[in-house]
Amino acid sequence: MAAALIQAVDDRQPHLLRLPVQQGSASALEEVRYALGSRHPRAGTVVLEAGRWHLRLPELRQLQELLAPLQLDLIRVAGDHPETLVAAAALGLEIDLAVPQPPSPAGAAVAGDLLVHRGTLRSGDHLQAEGSVLLLGDVNPGARISAAGNVLVWGRLRGIAHAGVAGDRNARIVALQLRPLQLRIADMVARGPEGLPPPGLAEQALLVDGEIRIDPAAPDFSG
């Protein structure tokens, strides 16, 4: 099944750009070019249904540039791949879960094994996830965030974060500003760095040779 552009019935609604359910050899950009073809959709806004596609920040930016000459403005990305949602948020786009479920804690929703929470965690709060967790907000001092998988924070991490709580030593912790009181990955513990992060880069903590190491991370949180 190929990508499809479903035009809105009126100017008040966005067009829907739907990527194929199964990701084949063609890139997302190629799929969108095919969907547009020789069509001349009415100018307006666009919602991208990405499904399980893993789209990094540069790819989403290329999609925006492809749509712009047609006076189409990408405003929202729906999908269930955590790094796609984070990359979309990095570009200032709205994000939606592809398959919304009844909310978990207040402000949170689940898609597959990803828990997405919108809002800041304040002192005394503890957000837990059975899979990976994506927080669109800050983790203030005195707050905790933990997950069996990865911990992704689109904001400042200044509380306590624990990734791989069930023992996954490949889990990682990523944040725009990684300055926690304490970091845990599986059974390893470390304190956060004190200096400011490199400008324009997120940071990630991961286990390297049995120790927690903090490195710059591209804004798409890939790698």
From TrEMBL:
The keyword Transferase is annotated on this UniProt entry: no
Coiled coil: none
Keywords per UniProt: Cell cycle, Cell division, Septation
Residue span, Septum formation inhibitor MinC C-terminal domain: 117-213
Keyword Cell cycle among record annotations: yes
Domain of life, source organism: Bacteria
InterPro entries (alphabetical): CAP/MinC_C, MinC, MinC_C_sf, Septum_form_inhib_MinC_C
Functional note: Cell division inhibitor that blocks the formation of polar Z ring septums. Rapidly oscillates between the poles of the cell to destabilize FtsZ filaments that have formed before they mature into polar Z rings. Prevents FtsZ polymerization.
Family matches, as HAMAP family: MinC
Family membership: Belongs to the MinC family.
PANTHER family the UniProt entry points to: SEPTUM SITE-DETERMINING PROTEIN MINC
Subunit composition and interactions: Interacts with MinD and FtsZ.
Protein name, UniProt field: Probable septum site-determining protein MinC
Organism of origin: Cyanobium gracile UHCC 0281
